[in-house]
UniProtKB/TrEMBL annotation:
Cellular component per GO, a single term: nucleus
Chain ranges of the C2H2-type domain: 35-63
A UniProt-annotated Pfam family: zf-met
Keywords: Cytoplasm, Metal-binding, Nucleus, Zinc, Zinc-finger
Annotated spans, Disordered: 1-26
Name of this protein: C2H2-type domain-containing protein
InterPro entries, sorted: MBS1/2-like, ZNF706/At2g23090_sf, Znf_C2H2_type
Organism, as annotated: Daucus carota subsp. sativus
Signal peptide as annotated in the record: none
The keyword Secreted is assigned to this record: no
Keyword Transport: no
């Protein structure tokens, strides 16, 4: 077991290590969401979700092609 200054330094080091590894959910979300609806600007993960979104939210409009 460590005592005194070693213990405090070890606790600080562990706290920094644990803090850095968490990251932000907003950063991960921005990376995952790549497709955007041109009408309402909703962000979706892939083309299939975009097609489902158009059929549910914008039934009168046609979804854009896969080439975007």
């Amino acid at each position: 077991m460590t005592r005194g200054k070693q213990k405090i330094e070890a606790q600080k080091k562990n706290a920094e290590k644990n803090q850095k590894s968490k990251g932000s959910q907003f950063e991960h979300r921005a990376v995952a969401l790549k497709v955007t609806c041109s009408i309402c600007k909703a962000q979706l993960a892939n083309q299939n979700q975009l097609n489902d979104h158009y059929s549910a939210k914008h039934p009168k409009e046609k979804p854009p092609s896969n080439s975007e």
